[in-house]
Amino acid sequence: MNKQIRSLLHYTITFYVLFGTFLSNDCTYLQYHFYFCALIIFHWLTNDNRCFLSVYDHEPNEYTLSILSKIGINIPKENVLLSTIIVYSSVIIPMSITYVKLRKLNCL
Q1: 16: buried, middle or exposed (CB in 10 Å: 19+, 13-18, 0-12)?
Q2: What span, in angstroms and rounded, lies between the C-alpha atoms of 54 and 13?
Q3: Distance CA 20, CA 34 (A)
Q4: Which residues contact 92 (CB under 8 A, 6 or more apart)?
Q5: How far is CA 40 from the centre of its chain?
Q6: DSSP-assigned letters across all residues of 22-74
Q7: pLDDT per residue over 29-54, tens digit each?
Q8: What CA–CA distance (Å, rounded) separates 61 from 63?
Q9: CA–CA dist 18, 37 (Å, integer)
Q10: Alpha carbon 52 to its chain's center
Q11: Is 86 in contact with 68 (CB distance < 8 Å)?
Q12: pLDDT of 58-104, one tens digit each?
């Protein structure tokens, strides 16, 4: 898979993770979003905190830090703890919002 396809796929997944919870109130859709986010966390934990798409193109946490720098938030790569917290939070927070919506909609 070439770099452009990996980047497009990575950005699509990122958009879905960050904003997927706001795109629908359908129980099935929200359940997919919740489990997808959980699988991403599991994947990172079992793959040395790296996404399979990032292995070829980025250092650990570099993908998320590059996105943040595009919106004016610059975090030094050397601050591994902070960057790791931000990376995991960027999935855990939307996943938590989805969980709350699932509870409110009696989807669980």
Answers
A1: middle
A2: 12
A3: 9
A4: 37, 41
A5: 7
A6: GS---HHHHHHHHHHHHHHHHHHHHTTT--TTTTTT--TTHHHHHHHHHTT--
A7: 999 999 999 999 999 999 888 888 87
A8: 6
A9: 9
A10: 13
A11: yes
A12: 777 788 888 888 888 888 888 889 988 988 999 999 999 999 999 99
Tokens of 17: 């993770």
Length of the chain: 108
Positive or negative, the Cα torsion across 47, 48, 53, 56? negative
Residue 82 token pair: 């902070």
Q: What own/partner pairs with CB < 8 Å and gap ≥ 24 does 69-75 have?
A: none
- Residue whose structure tokens are 């070439």: 2
Q: In which residue are the tokens 């595009």 written?
A: 70
Chain centroid, CA 47 distance in Å:
15
Q: Contact at 8 Å (CB) between 94 and 18?
A: yes
